[in-house]
User: Fold this.
Amino acid sequence: MLKELEGKVLMEFTMERHDVLYIPRGFLHEAATGNNESSLHVTITIPTSDYCWGVQVLKHMVSHLSTEDLPIRVAPAIHVPSGLSPQVPDDAQLVALLQEKVGSWLSGLSVDGLLDAFDRRMARTNEGQTKTFGKSMELRLRPFVAEVSRIRLMHGIICMCEPGGDVAVFQRAADRQRLEMPIRSTASELVRSLTSKPQRVADLPCSDAFERICVLQLLHQQGVVQLFLADADEKTIMS
Assistant:
């Protein structure tokens, strides 16, 4: 649907399952779901500006000019201890210094130099990303719910939830501690299906698979359900 707002034409439309939308960088947009449905909004930005000659020239110049090359003025509001007299150039001296430094940089500027500097920056970026990836792969992540997992109520936990209700109550028989958790009515059937017997996550009733994973993951974090996983040797482990 096209509509006009303050002289500007806006597009409004509904995306269906498996649709992909490309929005150029810098274009204002707003996403919303209908009928209070859950959704996942992922934005992927490609830094195409890094491949612009103008950006590369600017980065090359900045890398060759340090704060030692260009003295910074001391603002009047900054207190300078007595006996110290910072050397602050006047406007004419600063302009002359800038011209000298930029001229020196321009005299050595070349296409090959720009490309070499770009390659070095990309190499540092790639090296940093490789190190970060290596560290992340060494992390021991907490178990998470998956479709192939099995799940059950923790020993001694009972669950109470009305059909179509928006509150789930979990109670521990040993000490009568209660956890009241607000839920969407669409998740009530899922919560009511939980028992002390392990069940496969994919078999639990819920019309939205994403909602099922999210609700069970939250219950697992709250410590009211027990998660069964399978390691590389297909041995059952619990969390």
Notes: The mean pLDDT is 79.
